[in-house]
Design brief:
The chain is α/β, with parallel strands linked by helices. It is built from 10 helices and 19 strands. It has 3 domains: 156 residues, Spo0b-associated Gtp-binding Protein, Chain: A (Distorted Sandwich), CATH 2.70.210; 177 residues, Rossmann fold, CATH 3.40.50; 86 residues, GTP-binding protein OBG, C-terminal domain (GMP Synthetase, Chain A, domain 3, 2-Layer Sandwich), CATH 3.30.300.350.
């Protein structure tokens, strides 16, 4: 069955860098620090919107990045915050982490939002690093890069309109005429076994998704034929395109009686299906004798207050005006179905599960790599050219338990340690255990692994 899905790559905006700046006063050679903070980068947000019906657009444009935060400036001026990037998706979109398939959320209500890639934090300006012994910090933090990941989106069905009718009336032939869908078409009943979906281009903003479901017969609502299970799909479709065979069909049937059969099956399945907006499409108007039937059906529809279109799926006659009219109706129904009040539950922010874990990988006897989202970001936010900044980073890493994890993994002085893009020489500070154990919360206890290198080899 057709599944509406897309895979997109999302990147939060980078945080702006903090500023390392000092007051300049006429008679003071170097005033106090006054570097402003960098602005936070924008988040990438998915928002469910009832006016959006398909994920198709996300198959064409797949990379999305939110705005970056501006850098901080001197005179305590903070950088501006980057704007969030809000991507609208249909209500009912299931969002998953693109690599692991982990469920992030199910956007079930209009207006519901999820942050799928957080913008980076802005770097702190040098004013934040003043201590009694460091009156004039020469460094500021760099901005944190925005998160980036693949996200997969999936919308199971649904169509705006469904072609419904007895077997062999030409539902599959019509969807093939209206869209790029290429279902099986044949002369015998029950040719279509599973629903087909097609996207119909009815002009700007008027495109819609149409479903061709297997033919229904008398008793379908009680399980007769193959159509039973598919009545459930029609439940969620805004508009029913009721197709009748103007040629009288394979048994010389009366199209008006046929409309009655389908109406009764819809009503028997669910009372509200009988109330669903519906248009009647008289198909096979090219066949001899069809025009007389068409005139009768038109008259009947007028009396019943239903819109009627006479078409031929084979010659294409009448199909274009029918498609335009259906596009307008779908558009109007969609607009009317948008709830006036959006349901705003608290915006859910996706946080990757392994964010706080510190992992030490021994890559060779004297080379170690430390992995962990939070730790790697500390390194990326450090200006490695500034000695003072590097010293500050080392203390932070030590506090986060990196040194202990390295010693537990067997690192000794002089070994090479890499974190993110940076490598340095390991040098134990000594006394770390006693000093740091106390204020380290349990959840941050580093997890040590040694994959990648087997000491016995
Ligand atoms: N002359 C003529 N024949 C048509 C037209 N539309 C469909 N047919 C024929 O009618 C037969 C049935 O067409 P389908 O499109 O398979 O009908 P269906 O409603 O999808 O049938 P099921 O899937 O069995 O429910 C085929 O032989 C088609 O070629 C039409 O406009 N004119
Ligand atoms: Mg069919």
């Amino acid at each position: 069955m057709f599944v509406d899905e897309a895979r997109i790559h999302v990147t939060g905006g980078n945080g702006g860098a903090g500023s390392a700046s000092f007051r300049r006063e006429a008679h003071v050679p170097k005033g106090g620090p006054n570097g402003g903070d960098g602005g936070k980068g924008g988040d990438v947000v998915l928002e469910a919107d009832a006016a959006v019906s398909t994920l198709l657009d996300y198959r064409y444009k797949r990379h999305f990045k939110a705005e970056r935060g501006q850098h901080g400036k001197g005179a305590d001026r903070d950088g501006a915050v980057g704007a969030d990037l809000v991507l609208k998706v249909p209500v009912g979109t299931v969002v998953r982490e693109g690599e692991t398939g982990e469920l992030i959320t199910d956007l079930a209500h209009h207006g519901q939002r999820v942050v799928v890639a957080r913008g980076g934090r802005g770097g702190l300006g040098n004013t934040h690093f003043v201590t009694p012994t460091r009156r004039a910090p020469s460094f500021a933090e760099l901005g944190e890069p925005g998160e980036e990941r693949w996200v997969s989106l999936e919308l199971k069905l649904l169509a705006d309109a469904a072609l419904v009718g007895l077997p062999s009336v030409g539902k599959s032939s019509l969807i093939a005429r209206m869209s790029a869908a290429r279902p099986k078409i044949a002369d015998y009943p029950f040719t279509t076994l599973v629903p087909n979906l097609g996207v119909v281009d009815a002009g700007t903003d008027r495109s819609f998704v149409v479903a061709d479901v297997p033919g229904l017969i008398e008793g379908a609502s009680e399980g007769a034929g193959l159509g039973h299970a598919f009545l459930r799909h029609i439940e969620r479709t805004a508009l029913i395109l009721h197709v009748v065979d103007l040629s009288g069909g394979y048994e010389g049937r009366d199209p008006i009686a046929d409309i009655g059969v389908i109406d009764r099956e819809l009503a028997a399945h669910a009372a509200e299906l009988a109330e669903r907006p519906q248009v009647v499409i008289g198909n096979k108007c090219d066949v001899e004798g069809a025009k007389e039937n068409s005139a009768r059906v038109a008259e009947w529809c007028e009396a019943a207050g239903r819109r009627y279109f006479q078409v031929s799926a084979v010659t294409g006659e009448g199909v274009a005006p029918m498609v335009r009219a259906v596009g307008e109706m779908v558009h109007a129904l969609r607009a009317a179905s948008v709830p006036s009040e959006a349901v705003f539950e608290a915006t859910y922010v996706y946080e990757p599960p392994r964010e706080r874990i510190i992992e030490v990988v021994r890559e060779s006897p004297h080379e170690y790599r430390v992995e962990g989202g939070r730790i790697e970001r500390m390194v990326i936010m450090t200006d490695m050219a500034n000695e003072e900044a590097v010293a500050y980073l080392q203390r932070k890493l030590q506090r986060a338990g990196v040194e202990r994890a390295l010693i537990e993994a067997g690192a000794s002085d002089g070994d090479t340690v890499s974190i993110g893009p940076v490598s340095f020489e390991f040098e134990a500070s000594g006394g770390y255990a006693a000093a740091e154990e106390a204020d380290l919360p349990d959840e941050e206890t580093p997890h040590v692994s040694q994959e990648g290198y087997d000491a016995d080899e």
